[in-house]
Amino acid sequence: MDAREIRNLRVLMEYEAARKAPPASFPNLPDIPGGRYTDPRFHALEKAELWRKSWLIAGHMDEIPEAGSFKLWETAGQPIVIIHARSGQVNAFYNTCSHRGAPVVTDASGKRARLTCKYHGWTYDDEGALVAMRDPEDFRDFDASCRSLNRVRCERYGSLIFINFDADAPGLIEWLGPIANEWKEFQFDKTRLVDHYVWDLDSNWKIAMEANTEVYHVKSIHPATVAIGLDDRRNVNVFYPGGHGRMVAPNKTNDVGYARVRPKLEIETVGEIARTCTQSYGVFPNIVTPLGPTGFPMLVFWPNGINKCRMEVWWLGPDWGVGERPSDWDQTIDFFNVVLEEDTLFGRWIQKSQESYGFKSVPLSYQEARIYHWNQWADRLIGIEKIPPELRVPQVMGDEWLYPNDPRLAEAGALMAAE
Ligand code: FES
Ligand SMILES: [Fe+2]
Fold first, then answer.
1. Given ligand 1 and candidates 122, 135, 139, 147, which is best to mutate, with the most ligand atoms within 8 Å of its CB?
2. E strand or H helix at 317
3. Which residue owns the Cα nearest ligand 1 atom 4?
4. Which residues line ligand 1 (CB under 6 A)?
5. Which numbered ligand comes closest to the C-alpha of 98?
6. Average pLDDT over residues 297-306
7. Which tens digits make up the pLDDT trace of 92-131?
């Protein structure tokens, strides 16, 4: 983060603490229709449009470290083989043989020079080309060059692997927008995979994700963990193009809460804000990541039907050299899991209550505006016309609220001058 951005953030933190109402130019947010959490029509639209057109996190290079290493990835509901090719690139293919559609891989991971279908032995190289088959003379007018594995778009941000099912989607870097640049100080290309685990949860996936998208709930749900360390009244939200968002809230002190239990090894290039604040990103559609100077978790939320979901936790950290990860990671992860449990255990109660006849719609505060911003962009990606009118979210947050625009800076100047 550059000096100007840091200066602006510090001004905005004081502005947030001093304001007595939402910013004058901030729009009134209409209620979010409750059906967006419970209506099968909206769930189906998410499946058909949102998950199909978004860049989705699919893995880390430590899972496929060498040429020939592969993993099967089915988290997004499609069977995909991700392979570290001899070219050094990572390729992704549907795990669907070009003959009669059998899988070419049935192991969760492994290492192979070529992928051979178990049904009749068609064999593909790491670029997906069909390079060998049994009894080729029995196929008339056969052109092997048209029978490659079907490729899926696969790009990397540092050591993270992303997949997109949409041939027309922008590239990953364009998708990330300003985030791609802001994340440079965290050296994603050098991060190691510290840990990876999944929790299956009894709530709609957005309930689980939204618990990590605002600080309004912190005093109620995390009184003894997050609340004691976070200066939530100085939290500054920003809204990036594409539905992404960021919060930055100063730590009251680095002696309590999460800041106290960080591992020792540092990513040296990490700047002042991430060292003294909670700097957490929401990457559209389903990633939340509070970045930090000694490594960080990436929380990734996936629907599992309409009323259940899966939360994946990817922990990334600086390279610790050979051997096991440093033992001080254990207390970091343990602490963080306590916080996650506070959110996720409550999520199943929210689910039950939202499924009642009594749940109609959601009025959001200015503090929770990143949730509104997310919903606006979800509608744009899905296609507003495809959404039943009663399930749409009006597009009331205009481009003047899209980063780097920020009407609060002018209001902060006026507020300070008046004091
Ligand atoms: S289905 Fe793969 S070789 Fe026949
Ligand atoms: Fe929370």
1. 122
2. strand 309-317
3. 120
4. 97, 99-100, 102, 117, 119-122
5. 1
6. 98
7. 999 999 999 999 999 999 999 999 999 999 999 999 999 9
